[in-house]
Amino acid sequence: MATPRTRPTALAVWLMLAGAIGWWAAFSLTMERFEQLENPGAGAGCDFSVLVQCSANLGSWQGSAFGFPNPILGITGWVAPLVVGAALLAGARFARWFWLLFAAGMTFAFGFVVWLISQSIFELHTLCPWCMVTWVVTIPSFYAVLLHIIRIGALPLPRAAQKAADRMMSWLPLLAVASYAVIAVIAQLRLNVLATFV
To answer: Which pLDDT score is estimated for 169?
Structure first.
């Protein structure tokens, strides 16, 4: 496991930053949902066009995939990266089971976000601004946590895999940008996003 000398400071700072941004996006979406429930038919503050809006996403069944508004998951879930990041920055060391549990949570978040992206683009034909903020922080957070648990040996993989994961940590920004680019290309091909700005 990581020692104080090898404290993952960059990971800790990122988790705190991502947690704060993700929490704010989830909170903002929750407030938009409350406003919709209070004033049915009213547009959300993040509705900018037929393509770029929150209302269609919040009002769809996909927006309440587990029987309650998805942003509630974000309000509760983003607390975990905030706390883990702060603890790491303070010098905390976590047991293997903790890292695996945390990684499982991040994997669920990543899988759920990928599903929501596909639903937004292919089914709802919209791009929700606050949802996209969530995508932007969830994707690299998943990559970072996955690479970290590999490099510290929390996953039973060969030493070569640990070294490769450690080297790949420096490529995380590029990996994230490449992921965003793939989403942007798919959105453009499906929704012709650029036409709305021309």
So the answer is: 95
Contacts of 160-169 with CB under 8 Å at 24 or more apart are 169/10, 169/11, 169/144
Please enumerate in sequence order all residues whose Cβ is within 8 A of that of 179, keeping only pairs 6 or more positions apart, or say none.
139, 140
pLDDT at res. 122 = 96
The string of DSSP letters for 73-138 reads HHHHHTHHHHHHHHHHHTT----HHHHHHHHHHHHHHHHHHHHHHHIIIIII--B-HHHHHHHHHH
| Whole-angstrom distance, CA of residue 77 vs CA of residue 81 | 8
As to burial, measured by CB atoms within 10 angstroms (0-12 exposed, 13-18 middle, 19+ buried), residue 179 is: middle
For the record, the structure tokens of 84 come out as: 């883990």
Q: Which residues of the chain have pLDDT under 50?
A: 1-5
Give the DSSP letter of residue 192: -
Taking only the tens place, the pLDDT of each residue in 123-149 is 999 999 999 999 999 999 999 999 999
- Per-residue confidence (pLDDT) for residue 1, from 0 to 100: 44
The helix/strand/coil state of 9 is helix
Cα–Cα distance measured from residue 129 to residue 54, given in angstroms and rounded to the nearest whole number: 7
Q: Which of 172, 190, 143, 140 is nearest to 17 (CA)?
A: 140
**Do 85 and 33 meet the contact criterion of CB atoms below 8 Å apart?**
no
